[in-house]
Specification:
The structure is a single chain. The protein folds into two domains: 55 residues; 47 residues. Helix content is 64%, strand content 0%. The chain has four helices and no strands. Helix 1 packs antiparallel against helix 2. 2% of the residues are buried.
């Protein structure tokens, strides 16, 4: 059996991102939920209204989406600019890089296949008949 050590952890001996004074708790989560709901409802309103100049709608939706990501990062992931959050921020940045690389690579492969495909799908369907 393994031994259990009940010695207290020194204040400086914590994993990065575990010491969040003032950012955790129910009040922080409720504030984050409120901001997320407001941004979500704002996105639906922008997509459905005629009060916004039509060519600006995609830009406004992108700005609201970036705001939504910021709310999630700060209120739910608890990533701030503090020195304890360096590893969490680097992990988040690496995850975003990997997802972007996969999406960009997939789009590049599909564009290449579309360009180099010898026949269209309609032509292939007519050949089968």
């Amino acid at each position: 059996m393994s031994e259990r050590h009940d010695t207290p952890t020194p204040a400086g001996d914590r994993a990065p991102g575990t010491d969040h004074k003032g950012s955790g708790g129910l009040q922080g989560y409720v504030a984050g939920l409120g901001f997320a709901v407001i941004l979500t409802l704002g996105s639906f309103w922008v997509a459905d209204t005629q009060l916004v100049w039509q060519p600006a709608i995609p830009i406004l939706l992108a700005a609201l989406a970036i705001g939504q990501m910021g709310v999630h990062v700060v209120f739910f992931f608890h990533i701030s600019s503090g020195p304890a959050d360096t590893n969490n921020f680097l992990a988040l940045a690496f995850g975003i890089f990997v997802v972007g690389l996969i999406v960009f690579g997939s789009i590049l492969i599909m564009a290449n296949l579309n360009t180099n495909m010898p026949m269209s799908i309609d032509h292939l369907m007519q050949m089968q008949r």
